[in-house]
Amino acid sequence: MAPITGRASRLTQGVRRGGRSLGGAVVRRTWAWAERIGAITSDAPHGHRFAHLGAGVRIGFPVGCLYGTEWICLGDGTLVGSQVTMTAGMFPGLDLGPDPVLRVGRGCVVGRGTHIVAHESVTIGDHVFIAPHVYITDQNHGYADPHAPIGGQPPRNRPVSVGDGCWIGAGAVILPGARLGRNVAVAAGAVVRGEFPDHCLIGGVPARVLRRYVPGSGWHSTSNPEEDAVTANDQVIPIMIVGDSISHGSSGDWTWRYRLWRHLRHQAVDLDLVGPKDTLDNIRTEEVGDDDDTYADPDFDRDHDAQWGRPYVTEKDEIEAKTREHDPAYLLVLLGINDLFWYGVEPPQFEANLREFIANARRGRPGVAIALGTVLQCQKAVDDAAFGARVAGSNERLRAVAADLDSPAEPVVVAETAAEFVAGEHTWDGTHPNPNGEIRIASAFADVLADRFGIGARYPRPYPDLPPVAPHAKASID
């Protein structure tokens, strides 16, 4: 057949162009129709049963992975882009209990290709704008067992909270345990863990505060020349351990302070233990208050604020000066047994003293994060039911105070130090921890630092069975 040339060729090409144009128009109109019809709204949920789907909600088509909707709440007026994944639970068909697991507030925008994966609790406030391709989750795989594949190890959940009015830039990752205050701007590509206050700009890997708003004086950079000396060391975390003899330790001990320091350093956490002391109590003499440095292993940061016999009753009046002088970012507090045993404090007064302690600690160091250890079981609490009830009652008060005073700007959390501590197995004299007790105290604080603040990782289980301190280390020399 002869080739088509001239006028016939031009006619053929025009037909082809017209066909492509017409075909393109048909595809675009069909796609627009599919987007309109395929969108999920409160009026057209398309078979999905949400815990709550507010008025004016729209989830764009094509939808990403969407399951566990019975535990997902979307507030009024929230717009979700196309190809967004929102899931509750690890896979479909789970029973996650009576309460929602993923909550998105009113008037939010969730950008295209974003993933929000909730297992325990992801809460996003009102009027939060999330740019495309953000990843938010409250679960990571554990990696404590070096011999098992990480993907097969038990996962760990830590709730995530994003405050009202936040902006999360494209490609950011919000990790388990992250807590953002109100109106926090997250830079594109940031990896966010830990807790951040209201009205700040954060960015980087891991994210840190770049600018913050101070009422009355406006926005301030944290990286200006005047602050170079501070920002050069801003990854060092100052921690002060406040306690009594259980934290002070005595001749020959490792101490739980040592166990926690070693654990965090193993996790590559750059910490600085601070406080007015660095010694043990010399238990080998009759004299009260004569310290020594006979640690079982002295090779750690030994600074602390612990003293034999100390109660909240007296420390509440001293903590302000100490936090002001030593400027800790975190207080790890384990007090209370002396209040109950030596001072006869009842739970209501225990609560009042604890509240005063927290107020004074904050006055000395505004913004300090406080982890309160629960009062440990001692042998007297086992043998004396009334005393045991006072210990339990004081711990309930401690938990209630933490829940009442906790905030993103000034966190107060509970380290459940008593949860795995048994006086008959984990003390050397009915009160003071042996090496196996030290590990259990350290693990409770390590867990809360990891879960709430993204510092390090939870303490690995199962625990090793450690030998006791050599008897001669505590033998009297008087």
Mean pLDDT score: 88
- Compute the number of helices: 12
Q: From the alpha-carbon coordinates, what is the Rg to the nearest angstrom?
A: 29 Å
Q: How do the strands line up in the largest sheet?
A: 1-3-6-9-12-17-20-23-24-25
Question: How many β-strand stretches?
Answer: 33
Terminal Cα span? 120 Å
* SS-derived structural category: alpha/beta
Low-confidence stretches: 224-234
Please estimate the helix content. Answer: 25-40%
Largest sheet: 10 strands, mixed
> What spatial form do the alpha-carbon principal axes imply?
elongated
Beta percentage is: 15-25%
Structural notes for this entry:
The protein is an alpha/beta fold. The protein starts with 5 loop residues before the first helix and ends in a 25-residue tail after the last helix.
List keywords for this structure.
ten-stranded mixed β-sheet, alpha/beta, 33 strands, 21% strand
Summarize the structure.
This protein is α/β, with parallel strands linked by helices and 478 residues long. Strands 1-3-6-9-12-17-20-23-24-25 form a ten-stranded mixed β-sheet, with no helix packed on it. The protein has a seven-stranded parallel β-sheet with strand order 2-5-8-11-16-19-22, with no helix packed on it. The chain has a six-stranded parallel β-sheet with strand order 4-7-10-13-18-21, with no helix packed on it.
